[in-house]
């Protein structure tokens, strides 16, 4: 029987612990496993002594206990192992992973196998555990405390934001050989188990110190009272007489302390309030922390917000508790750690002679962090000639409190003194109408539209503050887009342009015409009898490493009719469809690109209108002018009517039971145009085809804010 003796398990010992069958046996089973991972982000990059637990979706859902949005289409990690196989010494699998030449031990349930290994290691308590939880601030506190503890002893911590019950186990398994193990623990790790011990992962963990950074409205819309009940369960895992360190600035502190006393009588507080055990005070940009009137540390906190300052006080307090002191030599490293932990990214650039500074704080967003950032932005010092602009995104996972919380944040912004306010992204749009102040510039769902508005509104030096959750939202790309496209928008090159309505020789889109030329080639060869709609197209490219949300996820080797793929290409900007059509028409990618370059030249297109087959913005700049689209539109009008009518498609499907893709524009539905082809994000560029009873005519446009605006413009042209 294998037992844990403080050293690493070998591959052979792991096989004895969890059983199973070697489907690819190791050459040397005595080699040690030093690191374990369920998620790629948990792998160690320092060596190749990693073991990865691969599991199918249902196994992952059952093991992790995930529900709701996290349990929809759960991933099968067997499919991804090839991406990091070179980092692995061993894989625990539920089926053989072909083409991955790494020792593979097949078991019935990989998650349960992980728990078996965890149980052996955890029982021996290989290091001193510090557990950190809180509505906000737990990742920053983890980073600060881990960095400080590394100054005195070997220390391990939860990687990035892997803070689930699963990653808590993995973090313990990977702490072998260290003195301290700092665990970040999220809400979901606390709410399972059977009463009266419904304490989640704390049934298994033993802590030398627990830290609660903040309590407020959090995931699933739990209010501060419910969050206090959950978060204080951390104290269940404390060793006898070991303390729970709590942020004394928590609004419902009395309730938190009372709930914590279910498990411990030692609650120690830190914060700015006079009654805290560890008290912080900021004077002229410097933080001083005292305990029992004794000065422990003083650090520079200029440009830090209230949340980061609070975490600095907590880290000083925790080090003092664990080490019995806070050395003066740790002050500079703490200041550096705070600077590194500060998630805010700062960008500076010029627009028409004016300096623009963007402070991007979109890594994460909870209610309290949103409020802290609004306060920070208001207090941010600028000259009287500098305007301040605030862009607010959403807070996610608020459940039935989504509307109320966002209205609360809007109320706070309306009481602020920013020159301009904007909202961006999902969920915010439904409540943005609550803004009643003249400085509200509107709600935006499209990144380019908001970027253009922000840049073109700059008339003086400007500071733009951006805050919101980046999950399933493009708000994290707003700051980089502003930097990249500042000259494009400020010069007028990104302005809206349209045949007959707003003609322009200087406006261009940064999307290329590759997709348009591939569709044109298909229609021309159909008209010439060189291709047939019933031709079978074998998929040769799946663009597996392409992260485009517009892919239709083709599978190599599958076959579809040309009719099916061409319909999709006309309706949706799917890069995998366009690449496969190009290869079908021309033979291979290299030949396709050469032929499309020649076609662009024959049409007389500008030098950078065609750069790549899909036409998507890439590293090599693309510029498509109105005149380019007019020339391409004229070529489309030469297509025979039998095939030209394909451009009238409004929707398409890859398979009868698959998703339905459709165009946003309503012009086809209303019969105002009889053909359309769009490119770029949300149909912001395109060709619309009219017919006057004698001939086809192309009406083209660039850089529309939204397609509904184009629909109105076209309606006006037709009526005129």
From TrEMBL:
Does the keyword Ligase feature in the UniProt annotation? yes
* Key words, A-Z: ATP-binding, Ligase, Nucleotide-binding
Pfam families xrefs: Mur_ligase_C, Mur_ligase_M, Peptidase_S11
Q: Which residues form the Mur ligase central domain?
A: 132-282
- InterPro entries per the record? Beta-lactam/transpept-like, Mur-like_cat_sf, Mur_ligase_C, Mur_ligase_C_dom_sf, Mur_ligase_cen, MurCDEF_CellWall_CoF430Synth, Peptidase_S11_N
What GO terms are given for molecular function? ligase activity
In this chain the Peptidase S11 D-alanyl-D-alanine carboxypeptidase A N-terminal domain maps to 520-616
* Domain Mur ligase C-terminal positions: 354-470
Coiled-coil region: none
User: What name has this protein been given in UniProt?
Assistant: Glutamate ligase domain-containing protein
């Amino acid at each position: 029987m294998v037992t844990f003796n403080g050293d690493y398990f070998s591959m052979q010992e792991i096989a004895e612990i969890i059983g199973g069958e070697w489907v690819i046996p190791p050459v040397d089973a005595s080699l040690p496993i030093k690191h374990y991972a369920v998620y790629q982000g948990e792998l160690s990059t320092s060596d190749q002594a990693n073991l990865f637990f691969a599991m199918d979706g249902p196994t992952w859902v059952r093991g992790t206990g995930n529900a709701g949005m996290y349990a929809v289409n759960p991933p099968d990690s067997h499919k991804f192992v090839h991406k990091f196989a070179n980092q692995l010494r061993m894989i625990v699998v539920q089926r053989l992973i072909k083409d991955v030449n790494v020792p593979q031990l097949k078991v019935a349930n990989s998650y349960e196998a992980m728990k078996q290994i965890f149980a052996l290691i955890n029982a021996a308590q290989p290091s001193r555990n510090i557990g950190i939880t809180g509505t906000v601030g737990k990742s920053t506190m983890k980073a600060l405390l881990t960095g400080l503890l590394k100054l005195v002893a070997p220390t391990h911590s939860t990687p990035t934001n892997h803070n689930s019950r699963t990653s808590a186990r993995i973090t313990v398994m990977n702490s072998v050989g260290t003195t301290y193990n700092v665990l970040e623990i999220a809400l979901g790790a606390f709410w399972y188990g059977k009463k009266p011990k419904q304490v989640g992962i704390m049934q298994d963990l033993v802590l030398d110190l627990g830290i609660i950074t903040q309590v407020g409205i959090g995931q699933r819309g739990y209010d501060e009272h419910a969050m206090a009940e959950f978060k204080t369960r951390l104290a269940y895992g404390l060793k006898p007489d070991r303390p729970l360190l709590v942020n004394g600035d928590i609004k419902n502190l009395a309730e938190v302390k009372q709930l914590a006393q279910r498990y411990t009588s030692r609650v120690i507080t830190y914060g700015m309030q006079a009654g805290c055990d560890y008290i912080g005070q900021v004077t002229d940009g410097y933080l001083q922390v005292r305990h029992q009137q004794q000065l422990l540390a003083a650090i520079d906190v200029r440009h830090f917000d209230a949340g980061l300052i609070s975490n600095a006080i907590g880290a000083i307090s925790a080090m003092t508790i664990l080490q019995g002191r806070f050395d003066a030599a740790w002050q500079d490293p703490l200041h550096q750690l705070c600077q590194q932990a500060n998630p805010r990214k700062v960008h500076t650039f010029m627009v028409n002679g004016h300096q623009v500074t963007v402070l991007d704080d979109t890594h994460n967003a909870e209610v309290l962090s949103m409020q802290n950032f609004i306060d920070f932005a208001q207090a941010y010092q600028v000259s009287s000639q500098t305007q301040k602009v605030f862009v607010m995104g959403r807070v996610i996972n608020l459940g039935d409190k989504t509307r109320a919380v966002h209205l609360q944040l809007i109320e706070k912004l309306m009481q602020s003194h920013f020159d301009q306010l904007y909202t961006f992204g999902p969920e915010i749009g439904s409540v943005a109408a609550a803004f009643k102040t003249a400085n509200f510039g509107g709600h935006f769902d499209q990144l380019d539209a908001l970027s253009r508005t922000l840049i073109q509104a700059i008339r003086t030096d400007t500071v733009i503050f951006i805050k919101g959750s980046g999950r399933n939202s493009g708000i994290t790309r707003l700051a980089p887009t502003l930097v990249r496209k500042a000259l494009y928008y400020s010069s007028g090159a990104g302005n809206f342009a349209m045949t007959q309505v707003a003609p322009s020789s200087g406006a261009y889109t940064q999307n290329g015409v590759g997709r348009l030329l591939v569709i044109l080639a298909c229609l021309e060869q159909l008209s010439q009898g060189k291709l047939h709609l019933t031709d079978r197209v074998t998929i040769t490219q799946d663009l597996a490493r392409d992260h485009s949300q517009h892919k239709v996820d083709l599978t190599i080797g599958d076959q579809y009719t040309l009719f099916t793929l061409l319909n999709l290409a006309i309706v949706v900007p799917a890069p995998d469809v366009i690449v496969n059509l190009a290869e079908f028409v021309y033979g291979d990618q290299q030949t396709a690109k050469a032929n499309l370059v020649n076609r662009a030249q024959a049409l007389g297109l500008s030098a950078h209108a065609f750069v790549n087959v899909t036409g998507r913005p890439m590293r090599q700049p693309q510029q498509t002018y109105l005149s380019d689209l007019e020339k391409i539109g004229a070529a489309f009008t030469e297509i025979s009517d039998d095939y030209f009518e394909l451009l009238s498609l409004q929707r398409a499907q890859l398979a009868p039971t698959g998703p339905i893709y459709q165009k946003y524009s309503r012009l086809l539905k209303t019969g105002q145009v009889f053909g359309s082809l769009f490119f770029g994000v949300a149909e912001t560029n395109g060709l619309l085809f009219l017919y006057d009873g004698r001939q086809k005519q192309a009406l083209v446009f660039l850089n529309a804010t939204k397609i509904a605006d184009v629909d109105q413009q076209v309606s006006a042209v037709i009526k005129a």
